Amino acid sequence: MSVAALEVRGLEVRYGPVRAVRGVDLDVAPGGVTALLGANGAGKTTTLMAAAGARRFAAGSVTIFGRDMTGADPEAVVRAGVAISPEGRRVFASLSVEENLTVAGAVVPDRALARGRRAEMMERFPILGERRRQLAGLLSGGEQQMLAVARALMSGPRLLLLDEPSLGLAPRMVDRIFEIVEALRAEGIAVLLVEQNAALALEVADRAVVLANGAVAAAGTPAEIADDALLRSAYLAA
Ligand code: ATP
Asked: Which residues form the ABC transporter domain (predicted)?
């Protein structure tokens, strides 16, 4: 079997006395999409941030494309081929679309490559090309989400950590965002997809992990998770 894009084992994260993540195991196959599901506060974002090197953890391991990245800092995780599109998009509101992409491209040492990728992003997401000179803060939520994904792609990742991309978006934009996830998968980019919208996430994923109170409540194929009525009513609000 080829080496996993992401392998998390026995992850424990605490906020003071709160055990936010408790013994979580998680895999993303190379070029695969794993959906990380669960109610508000279940520990999804904390797990994703720990995998990104942005959250210290008390125990467990993180392996990225076969390399032990336990305790590595975010820069090292980026160099290992990982990009993050954070919850709430976090685009620079007072910079233009193009400037947002330029800033994200600063991690690419080859300037010509960075410029080429920026042009590629504006072709790939035509609305960003049309609005290249517009301040990112003036974009709609869906457009900002596209910009957040485009920024993440500027580093040329092999694994994208995508946190709540559909949150607060109009249905048409939600569809568009999920089309983008499918396109990434078709290109061989692996995705860890944190989502509140379990039904849609299960449509694009090939693995799913459900968290409840910081622990894994269930893991399996999307069909296994979707068919479990108890699980659905207890944790997925679907
Ligand atoms: P959401 O969908 O609301 O973001 P989530 O599943 O991503 O939820 P987390 O944000 O990872 O969950 O939160 C897990 C638990 O850790 C929650 O109980 C939350 O209140 C707590 N928590 C998260 N961030 C912090 C923090 N910075 N300090 C203290 N507790 C935190």
From this structure: 6-238
Spans of all domains in the chain: 6-235
177, β-bridge pairs: none
Nearest residue (by CA) to ligand 1, atom 27, is 15
What residue type is assigned to position 202 of the chain?
L
pLDDT for the residue numbered 237 = 65
Give the distance (Å) from ligand 1 centre to CA of residue 197: 18
Q: Is the pTM of this model over 0.90?
A: yes
Question: Which of 8, 13, 18 most suits a substitution to test ligand 1, by most atoms within 8 Å of the C-beta?
Answer: 18
Q: Which atom of ligand 1 is nearest to the CA of 87?
A: 4
Task: Tell me if ipTM is over 0.90.
Answer: yes
